[in-house]
Predict the 3D structure of the following.
Amino acid sequence: MAENWTDANLNFYLLLLCHGSHINPYPVFLSEETVLLYELKDARSVPDPIHTYDAGFKGVPLIIDNGSYQCRVGWATDKEPRIVFRNCYAKHRKDRGKKIAAETEILVANDIGNMEAVRFQLKSPHDENVVTHFEAQETMFDYTFTHLGINTTRVPHDVIITEAFCNPNYSRQLMSELLFECYGVDSISYCVDGLLSYHRNHPSTKDGLVVNIGHCTTHVIPILGGMADPSCARRIRMGGQHLTRFLWRWLQLRFPQHLNAITLSRAEEILHAHMYVAEDYMSEVVKWGDVDYYEKYVRRIQLPFVAAPVSTVSAEQQRERRKEAARRLVELNARKREEKLLEDEAELTRLVELEEAMEEFTPDEPEYQHALEEAEVPSLTHLTKKISILHHKIEKTRTKMMQQTAAEEEEPKPKRVCESVSPQKRADLEQWVEEVKQQWRDIQARRAARRHKRQEMAKRRTAASQERMRIISQLARREKKDDNFGMRDEDWDVYKAINKEGGGSDSEEENEKLQELESALRQHSPEFLGDANSSKPTSLAENYQIQLSTEQIRIGELLFQPYMYGLEQGGITATIKYVLSLYDSATQERIVGNVFLTGGPSSLPGLAARVRRELLAHRPFQSHFCVTEAKSPVLDPWYGARDAAEELVAVGISRADYQEHGGDRITPNKRGNMYWAPLTPVALESAPGSAVPSKETTPAPPELTPLPSDTTNDADNTSS
């Protein structure tokens, strides 16, 4: 559709933008209580089946849309591609360190179930949008032909494969060498994905401007007379990959608590489902500053989480269980203490018998020395001291056991934090509330002190950290034949002094007391606690949510302002303006009559409307232009190659052409690249009297005679 900027057509254009066929980027607002909450699918790839291959496919061309993001493969007789997979592979974790290829297991394309598990081991044949890693490309071809069911020694088919716009001859030569020498194909036809999509959507339009937004790059290609004009085409290093990575890092920086949960795959899913291009970026940003607008259009993404198991046990039952566990622990300690007491008594009896036996011998007799060895002491004095220490220890243990028995016989008094208050005594109630407030402040102060001490312990040069190291060094200097630290009650104080947790933690008893105090304060003095608790999440799921506000328009804006990503390049509209400036006004009118958007990221809602708005501001008053979108931005290149399979095979490279001219030689056609012959090297400046010709006398290389061109092109295409 060509727009004529009269008042009537302008009103129609605005109506078209508001109610056009593109997807509405704004969420539907239902009511004030409606919360726009979305869940992530986390879809995993499904392994591709191995199709059957029979004699019916003999002579059928094979179409490979070899994109840097996805590869789409199928026969020219298929309605849809048979195989669609990510153009990458990775080694299995258990085979990462193996050097021998035969011993390694390679996960290719859709065989990779969890892409994030091998994210940093992924390898691709492409460097940006140009194939440079042909070992990886061979792996991808093996995967492709195997899943198509081709089980012959060679691939006896004509192959139609896409390549980058203005693909280097060297890359094309290596690709031809791989397909001819390794797989034995019949012929190869090279074409460009953006041009295939353009000619499928506009088969009869000879002039236009293709904006092909790919995974790694964006190309602005003018079309004149049905043929691409590569001399005036421009390339932008901005594509879907950059949008995804920018969104990924942006969300990680904005929500650092969910750093591990925000993966590149989830960022890609969010980009496809929630991003759009703003028609006027700055005015949209201003709108997001309004609180009502924010609450109305913000999108909340629910991240996956594992909910804690819900306990059906009441608080009273939990107390009883804790008491039972404490009682069992006390009984266990008492049993160990009794066992230790019996061992000490037996040891004391043995030492006393040795002491009595030593009295009957003199120190020179061997029986005396044998008794000292059994007692493990050097002299009788040390034996007497050891007996005294052991006797004192036994008495102390017996005393502690008697105290424990007496304490168990006494009935414990129930602990009550909040005393009952009589409503009739108002003065007593106010005084009691103040006491509860003070208790609440004391608990909070103790908690704050413990947190501060933990922070100080973590630092190196604080007084608390230095005191901890001093105590540890003193303990290390002690002579310890037997490691009995912890046997004494005083050791617990030392442990608390050197513990990194600050000498203690929030005990369950303290938490229960704090809950009871807060419950009483909510009933009698709710204003004391304030509204701090009202802003806390009401559920655990809200702790694992991220909010998308300006991100919805910020990501798509990178296509128009690449400097936001750090690239010193112009955006789509700036590049379009520059390309148009390379032509005269009449040619500009022909080109802008059909501005065509294609490529995966071109499906972002609002992109076409933004380009229309930018062109409206740039083009002269009442000038005509038209912006259209591909019907299927992702699959149109494959469909275009399928529809024009016969024409592409006719201009392909046969094995005889490959052996005669080399793998980089192609026949120019409207769906592919032009052929640029390599320059003949010029000899250096010859010295006087030398037979080597100089630059001035070196003859120019003969003009290249092109191979037979596409017979289907008309006279205009041939002249262009």
Summary: The chain is about 45% helix and 10% strand.
